[in-house]
Q: What sequence folds into this?
């Protein structure tokens, strides 16, 4: 279970249990703004975090798998530019994928 998130100078800090243990993350204000604009949300950064908690945690765990240092991991705006395609249905039949 994630610890209570809190605002910092650069964004919103939170902790998650990951395969390598409890990790600290900071999601930048710019990244939260991108997530808010994607759906037209006008709310506080803390509420944006809660509204997008699932996708933020997926990105955080992926980064934790890649980053082995004990330092807090920064989740910045570029991490969410590609996420816009995640919400789109991208299913193609197996034959079409194999032919590509």
A:
């Amino acid at each position: 279970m994630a610890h209570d998130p809190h605002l910092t100078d650069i964004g919103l800090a939170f902790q998650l249990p990951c395969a390598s243990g409890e990790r600290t993350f900071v999601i930048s204000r710019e990244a939260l703004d991108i997530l808010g604009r994607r759906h037209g949300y006008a709310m506080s950064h803390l509420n944006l975090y809660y509204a997008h908690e699932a996708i933020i945690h997926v990105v955080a765990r992926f980064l934790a798998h890649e980053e082995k240092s004990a330092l807090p991991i920064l989740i910045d705006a570029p991490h969410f530019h590609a996420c816009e395609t995640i919400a789109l249905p991208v299913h193609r039949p197996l034959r079409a994928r194999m032919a590509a």
